[in-house]
Specification:
By secondary structure, the chain is of the alpha/beta class.
Amino acid sequence: MTNAAASVPSARYPWHQANWSALPRDLGRLPHALLLHGPTGVGKLAFGVQLAQALLCQQPGTELMACGHCRNCGLLSAGNHPDFNRVGPLEPRKPITVDQIRAIGEFMALRPHTAPRKVTLIAPADAMNLNAVNSLLKVLEEPPPGGVLLLVSSHPMRLAATVRSRCAAIRFFLPPPPEALSWLGSQDTDTDRHAQALALASGAPLTAAEGIRRRKLRASLAENGGRRGLRRYRIARCYSNRAVRRPEAPHDPCVDGVIMWSKAKASRYQRRRASGLPNP
């Protein structure tokens, strides 16, 4: 079981307003399982984390906004809340296993420690293998009282129909281009290429924001390090694609890549030194 929280976004995305309005104001009337689905890059995971925070909060507001100051909010932000469980692939491009899903059943069967209920967030839910799906069906068919399951997926049709039918679906859509561009402008003052970045991201604002950040990083490396800087960036990107990360830990792929590249270079240096070969 992965008992750690994702980083809690500081603010809600403006295009999520309709999704928040669709939820009951009384959290006790919330379905026992929710499927958050929609295109990549619209913040489904952030919505799930914010909803989990509201579900665990001791004094949530009328707009389903967690207070951010109570003990439960502090535990969730610190990543060690005993009543929150996030499940995802243990390695990149690996499935969610049946053992991970069985642990969910054991986790949800326990009484809450400090929060009003227990919450499990599965992301991406479509990464479950067949045995894991069958194990999850047992939890969905006999939901434990006081527990909420949040499934996040960009490819809901990859989930078994029996899983989808047992979850209340909340669908996310791409925001209108003016709204997405306005949000990008609030995140970055250099608005010259926002429209181009949004078009390249097929209208997904978070994907566009990541593309803008990478473009700025490449430009900075090219300015400060010339060809060598760009070469290091490409090497870092290559290594970041192979990096093994904890699924619950927020990360910067470029930073991960630089760390792995540095370790690999240091290892080569030590091997050459041990064999008496000169180092370049």
